[in-house]
Amino acid sequence: xxxxxxxxxxxxxxxxxxxxxxxxxxxxxxxxxxxxxxxxxxxxxxxxxxxxxxxxxxxxxxxxxxxxxxxxxxxxxxxxxxxxxxxxxxxxxxxxxxxxxxxxxxxxxxxxxxxxxxxxxxxxxxxxxxxxxxxxxxxxxxxxxxxxxxxxxxxxxxxxxxxxxxxxxxxxxxxxxxxxxxxxxxxxxxxxxxxxxxxxxxxxxxxxxxxxxxxxxxxxxxxxxxxxxxxxxxxxxxxxxxxxxxxxxxxxxxxxxxxxxxxxxxxxxxxxxxxxxxxxxxxxxxxxxxxxxxxxxxxxxxxxxxxxxxxxxxxxxx
Amino acid sequence: xxxxxxxxxxxxxxxxxxxxxxxxxxxxxxxxxxxxxxxxxxxxxxxxxxxxxxxxxxxxxxxxxxxxxxxxxxxxxxxxxxxxxxxxxxxxxxxxxxxxxxxxxxxxxxxxxxxxxxxxxxxxxxxxxxxxxxxxxxxxxxxxxxxxxxxxxxxxxxxxxxxxxxxxxxxxxxxxxxxxxxxxxxxxxxxxxxxxxxxxxxxxxxxxxxxxxxxxxxxxxxxxxxxxxxxxxxxxxxxxxxxxxxxxxxxxxxxxx
Lengths: 318, 257
What we know:
The complex is a heterodimer. By secondary structure, chain A is α/β, with parallel strands linked by helices. Chain A is 32% helix and 26% strand. Chain A has 10 helices and 13 strands. The radius of gyration of chain A is 23 Å and the shape is globular. Chain B has one domain (2-252). Chain B is built from 10 helices and no strands. The radius of gyration of chain B is 18 Å and the shape is globular. The chains are: A alpha/beta, B mainly alpha. Chain A binds chain B through residues 48, 51-55, 73-74, 76, 78-86, 88-89, 93-94, 96-103, 124, 140, 150, and chain B through 2, 5-6, 8-10, 12-14, 16-17, 20-21, 86-89, 91-98, 255-257.
């Protein structure tokens, strides 16, 4: 697969702060690549390095085979993270404005419809809600029907329905061969959209792979969480690690087909339980595992309870 | 053709944005009005006296025009560049085919339209309120256009090198006010200390004021430069400054962080 987006040993510092520390990656044609990582990990700096809006201290970056500053801009679509377009233009006028900057561009009405804003075309940008504003901003990155789309946190502030509209849009673009490079804090977004995910922490790319590969490698075991006061010895003869966490018993690595054994053991011993939930690891577990390791290395203070909270969720499952 | 399309698209967006900021529109045109009302109608000129406004009314037309040609682009461009930077608009534009020169040219066109309208208002008011007798020379249009280009360039630099919109506006006032009064606009060379006279030549606004005065108010004695008619010579100097300021202004616009 030819690399449409590529970096090699990219390093960028701001004073004493290392934003990127030797990042190398490649993204193929038509691939959707999601970059995840904590705040300050270097995601936006990497996007800027790839779009030619920051100059790395060292290393190489290539987009569509050229240095980012030399890339054919008619083929690029970019949505910066904190983008705020002129606010006294209507949504339609904004898209017309950006349309006018390209050699060939789409019909602004069609773009408005794509981002679910057809009904708000005559509203000034400043009068739109936060989510609507972000949708219009996404639209500005699509007016030229780009071959490569860089979107930095595209769905931040957008409600769930609007988020799904943007997701469908990105999926449709990917189906037509557009290469998409996105950053996000929404693990569901990365898991749904991305062919591959890269986790950036402290300026380093600590893991890259398909969501499935990352989960298999770093997500940890599946867990059965039982809300009970039962002693751990009750489950002593199960061949799985058992531990107690915050009023629950957690059994790791157990198959869902064996949940009946656990319930049987509780009932045999006359023990009460108020809830039981089985969960598989997902990208959020990967994120917490790897990003937390980095946080721990940096600050000496991790968040060990987070994994449990995330694993059990509000209703004990995901 | 596509370059023209880009410039038109950028200029249209900027023009609409300007028109929809009512306070900006109001004060853009209120500024020259109040200037003429205060200096032309209230303070009044006193050709027989030796005060600040001792020249005939026609002498000060160049000063009134200089005020809008200086302040409007300087403050508008300064704050516009800062606003673009704060909203990551340059980061976005840097990834489109629009170049920095095209962006600045678009902004300059909008400023030229605004300042031309303000200049017409000034000329009408100054004739009605002060009875100034001036000549309408085609060179006046050229001076306004070239002056706008020059000060849009300076304004772009100001916005690029200050770290916020507030900073840009404050800096434009701090730079603009001394320039306005020390560029042979309202204060004649004779009223300034002798040692200061060479410094007046460092102000781009001086060439605007001298040239406009030479074009519109023939009664005044504006010196020829190297034997060339001052109305033309000052325009050439101002044009050279404008080209340099525009190039430096476009170059200063941030494309990277």
